[in-house]
Amino acid sequence: MKSVRTKLIASILICSLFTSVLIGVIAISNSVRTAGKDAMTMMQLTGQKKTEEINSTIQKIEQSVDTLSEVAMSNFDYDSFRQSKDYADTYTETVQQAVLDFANHTNGAVTAYLRYNPDYSNPTSGVFAQRQSVDSELQCLTPTDFSMYDESDVEHVGWYYLPVQAKKAIWMSPYMNENINIYMISYVVPLFAEDGTSIGIVGMDIDFSQITDLVDETKVYQSGYAFLTDASAAVMYHKNADEGTKLSDLDSSLSKSADFIGDDGNQGKTMDYSYKNVNKKFAFYNLDNGMKLVLTAPVSEIYAEAYGLAKLIIIAMIVAFVLSAVIGVIIGTGMTRPIRQLTAVIEQTAKLDFRPTKEGGKLRKQKDEIGNMATKIHIMRKKLREMMGDLQQTQQVLESNAEDLNHLMKQNSAYAEDNSAATQELAAGMEETSANAAHIVENVGIMRESSDNIQRLAEDGEKNSGQIQERAREMERISTESRHKTDQMYAVMKQKTDAAVEQAKSVQKINALTDNIKQISSQTNLLALNANIEAARAGEAGRGFAVVASEIGDLATQTLDTVSTIDEIVGEVNSSVSNMTECLTTIMEFLEQTVLGDYEHFAQVGEQYHADADTFQQIMQQTKEAVDALEQHIEEISSTVSEINSMVEQSTDGISGIAEKSGSTQNLVTEGYDKLQECTQSVNVIRDFVAQFHLD
């Protein structure tokens, strides 16, 4: 039979183990999930940031070529172009320097060209400027002769006919220029007349390293990297794979990569695959030139932080369980020591040993249920000891009287028979006393069961109390940390929002600048008008001055058109700034009114603690009822002891009757002598019974 101490310690250990494992599993699950989300967010942020950098480079190239196309066509005469093939050569001389200037101011530009529709120009008309190396100056070379190639020859003249057929600016696929040994990518803008007639193209060949260097700079965790593909998941640039290689050809797990990358809805999402027995994830982002920036990293590196956190939690679980085991042993030993001492006192009582014990005095000094039980048992033992003392005195009196009666019975044996009857009544009373003593032992057993109930209820109270304290500490810590972080985030967001709104107002300064430009344009128009008037007055001598005045007027008109365009752009910028301000204001209101308000939810957690307190109160109430039951059993023991006293009195009366009958029945001396012998035997029985009790 296992002891209460063993059961208590085992219960504490089981509860500690269960609690540690449960909390550990929940903590590991949440931490791994949270760390995994953070890791994927970091990977997404890296991809978005690098995409913005590459797109910024691409947009600068597009802006340069688009602007060059507008400048090249600003003074182009469409009618003359249709009427004479020599017009293209003449016009090229006026825009050749602009082509060179734009190319020199475009990072990575290796080649710049302006080519005309061969149907309306000579086969080699146009501008073709190329560097012999990345660091060399641009040199104007003879353009490609269109008469040598057919329109379907994509390899040689696809750079011209593909954009014209698409009727929009396009990025060409990267290719190796064998003449200068530079890997390039081209951006080409087709030129059209107002009626849709193709005029030609403007384009630049850009050193592809302008983009690939940014790709190579991308670092994803420790060994992760980035590469480029097209929309069909064919490699455009990869440090370990050749151009044109399909991702599906690298590993069977990438068989669905084309469908995944081809769906723009999957941008920023991850796909799992295996490469050289290493589990990896990749995510892609769309670039403005039609390519896909793909980021890849091993799963082990992505979740490295999560795995490390899980290990720390497991170690903390083990330490917590060991500490709980030590504390459980200490608490179990401390709680069961008084019970073991009280059990020893009860066992001593069951052996009819009523001698005082040192442990009993210490136990009665405790201010708890154990102390109350020890006090009640002490009272019971005291009463039993007093009763046994009285019984011992009665035995001594009986022995003395029996000796005196023995001398009398030798002379008056006739009275012994009456004494025998009285002695039988006394024996019956003693049997009833024995039955009452058995009842006392039974009540002592009930007291033990009540003690066990009290012990179990105390354990439940201790366990619930610990859980309540743990919940309180955890809620306080989480609430404080979360509130502090949210307040910090709100303060930073508010500061940045106010700064952004204030900076947005600087856009209004552009309006003032455009107003100044308009005034200058108006004055220029007025100057041109005055110049025309003076030229008219000067007659033939003022014709040259009239041409200059006309050009100044045209310049003023173009300036007004440009300022109008700027006004429209500024209007769009002001609208975007206004939308951004409203968005930031909405975000700040959400943080202030919703997020900070959500912390009121923690007040609801208090209801759980009320429920726990009610449970604890019920357990304590059951403990009180168990103590009341114990007191009732003790009262029954007291009642039993009273009955024993009553029986002893009856025995005394029976002995007195014997004495009376001995004096009044002298004719029965012989029979009384026989009864006296029986009485002597009964006294011997009482002596043996009393001898079993240890009172001193």
Describe this structure in words.
This protein is α+β, with helices and mostly antiparallel strands. It has five domains: 98 residues; 140 residues, PAS domain (Beta-Lactamase, 2-Layer Sandwich); 84 residues, 2-Layer Sandwich (Beta-Lactamase); 177 residues; 99 residues, Methyl-accepting chemotaxis protein (Helix Hairpins), CATH 1.10.287.950. Helices cover 70% and strands 10% of the residues. The strands form two sheets. Strands 1, 2, 3, 4, 5, 6 and 7 form a seven-stranded antiparallel beta sheet that branches. A five-stranded antiparallel beta sheet has the order 9-8-12-11-10. A hairpin with a 5-residue loop joins strand 6 and strand 7. It is rod-shaped, with a radius of gyration of 55 Å. The two termini are 33 Å apart. The mean pLDDT is 77. This is Methyl-accepting chemotaxis protein. Keywords: Coiled coil, Membrane, Transducer, Transmembrane, Transmembrane helix. Belongs to the methyl-accepting chemotaxis (MCP) protein family. It comes from Roseburia faecis.
Key terms:
single chain, 696 residues, alpha+beta, Beta-Lactamase, 5 domains, 7-stranded antiparallel sheet, 5-stranded antiparallel sheet, 16 helices, rod-shaped, Methyl-accepting chemotaxis protein, MCPsignal_dom, transducer, transmembrane helix
